[in-house]
Structures are given as C-alpha cells and as structure tokens.
Amino acid sequence: MEQQIYKGKLTQFHRLKIAKKEDLTKNTFSLELEIPEDLKESFKFEAGQFVSIKFYAEGKEVINDYSMTSAPYEKKIALGIKVNSQNGATAKLYKNYNVGDEILVSKPNGRFTLVSKPSEFRTIVGFAAGIGITPVLSHFKNILHNEPRTRLFLFFGNKSSEELIYRDLLDQLAKQHHNRLQIFYFYSQEKTADQFFYGRLDEKKLNLIINQILHLDDTDEESTIWDAVDEVLICGKGEMIKTLANACYHHGIPKKNIHFELFEEFNDDIYPVEKEFPLIENVQVDFQLLGTDLHVDCKN
C-alpha cells in the first residue's frame, strides 16, 4: 500500500492485479481488477463512483480517475477507459499493462451517487455521451437489480455507431428488462434513418425527447412521463452537462434531483450564478398623510 497527497487529501493506493482486459472500440478498452479477500471491505463502493489509478508513462508518475461500470452487487471493480491520444498517458496504460500485472488503485470515491429506494415507484432518466456512459451504466445496472419498481430511460449520444461502447451489454439489459428500461441512441456525425436520432444531446434535442418520447404516461393518463421524473443523471463533457442540466431545470426538475459527473476540466459554472441583491438598511421615508408631513426611520 502507498500513500500520496492527491487533490488536497491523503490518498491510499493498493496493488491490485488486472484480471481481465478487453478492447471495446478502436480507442476504448475495459479493465477488470481482482480484489483480494483482505481488501474487499476497502473496495466496497456505490454505483457511480470512480477509482484513481497510479501508473508510470515515459518514466513519469501519472494519476488518473476512471469510473466503474460495475455495480456494487457484482462485487468487482470494472473500468471503462478511453484513449484520447496515442501519445497520452492512457495510451501507455493500455500498452504497458496487461492481464496478470499489478497496478496501484485507490479506494473508490466520488459523489455521483443516488440513494437507493427499492420500495418506491420511481422514474429515472439518464443522459450520457461517449465514455460518459461508464458511471451511468453502473447506476442503471444497480437500479435494475435493487429497485424492481423503478423505470429507466437512457439517451446515449456518440459520434457514430462505430464508437458506441457497451452496445451489446446495453441491448442485453434492455431486452432483459424491457418493461422497465428503454434505450435510445443518438449520433452526431452519422446519418440516421430517423432524423430524430441525428445530432448532439442538447437543449433542442431534450425538447424533442420530452414531446415525442417522454409524453404519454401509461401509468397516469393525467400526466406525462417527464412529469413523473424523479432523478436525472448526466455524464459527459462540460458543455453538454451545462446545456442539459439547465434545460432539465427549466423544464421543472429541481437542481437537487439533477446529478452530473464531469469527464474533463470545465471552468464554467454549470448553472448561472444568481445575483445577490445588496442589503438595504436604515431607510428613511418622508410622506404626507391627510395634509400632515410625516417621517419614518426603517431600521433592521
């Protein structure tokens, strides 16, 4: 075990063995990590969390965060990883580490989590783009396993069908839970037979989704599916999250029910910063009442 100051806190790293490595697309892969018996308690996690991995690339120490695609009930750590550049650190992770190798991994962390409510009827909507599907996949698997009354809708955007990761797994989940899970794929750089599914997930697309997919609610004829949404999960790049989070908020979802995970550095505020009005103190009022001049001091 190693300790290191990371992002303002003391982080412990444990050596874990790579149990499985699999190519997903031309620039994404998955790792499954073996958890020894004496570390199982340390590596308990909640759906939507991530681990930090410390490795070496070109002789330099690198620490990167990767979200888990596994759900807690699966009792394993599985990660989905994207190689953004062939010269980047993650490319070296892919090239230099294989099944059987040990790698330094932190305990699970992150606040992109939900409170489980297995006895309630809930509607949860997920929006993901590219590798942003990883923590959302963890959530959806966990909810389908633990919440028999919850229905789920996933809107998953990618550049093309070639870059869509976890397609087989997602389709398998949708088939297995066809009465509770619906998945819709969108492509920003690939023409689709139905124009509806062409383009990025943004405010305009959300309006169409609400009006054309999340409209009629079979469980309540007096409201729409969107009216019944309890929680929203969003994961992807900052601009997408900012656009969709604000659109969801303006369509009636409280901010506390909109959960998001950023997959890149993003310096903007997700929501507009509300202006604070100056505090007005010690107001003096002069007025006339029935011909009489009056003066009032209004103090806090």
Range of helix content: 10-25%
Radius of gyration: 24 Å
Count of DSSP H/I helices: 5
Order of helices and strands: EEEEEEHEEHEHEHEHEEE
Oligomeric state as shown = single chain
What would the principal axes of the Cα set say about the shape?
Answer: globular
pLDDT < 50 stretches = none
Q: pLDDT average, as an integer?
A: 91
Q: Could you give a short account of the major beta sheet? A: 7 strands, antiparallel
Beta-strand percent range: 25-35%
How many distinct beta strands?
A: 14
CA-to-CA gap between the ends? 58 Å
Helix/strand-derived category reads: alpha/beta
Feature tags:
300 residues, alpha/beta, 7-stranded antiparallel beta sheet, 5-stranded parallel beta sheet, 5 helices, 14 strands, 18% helix, 34% strand, globular
How does this structure look, described?
The chain has 300 residues and is an alpha/beta fold. Helix content is 18%, strand content 34%. The longest helix is centred in the middle third of the chain and has 14 residues, at 133-146. The protein is globular and about 95 Å long.
What's a quick, concise take on this entry?
With 300 residues, the chain is α/β, with parallel strands linked by helices.
Give the topology.
Elements lengths: L1 E5 L2 E17 L2 E7 L15 E8 L2 E8 L9 E6 L6 H8 L5 E5 L16 E7 L3 H14 L4 E8 L8 H10 L4 E7 L15 H10 L18 E6 L1 H13 L7 E5 L20 E7 L2 E7 L2
Parallel strand pairs: 8-9, 8-11, 9-10, 11-12
Antiparallel strand pairs: 1-2, 2-3, 2-7, 3-6, 4-5, 4-7, 13-14
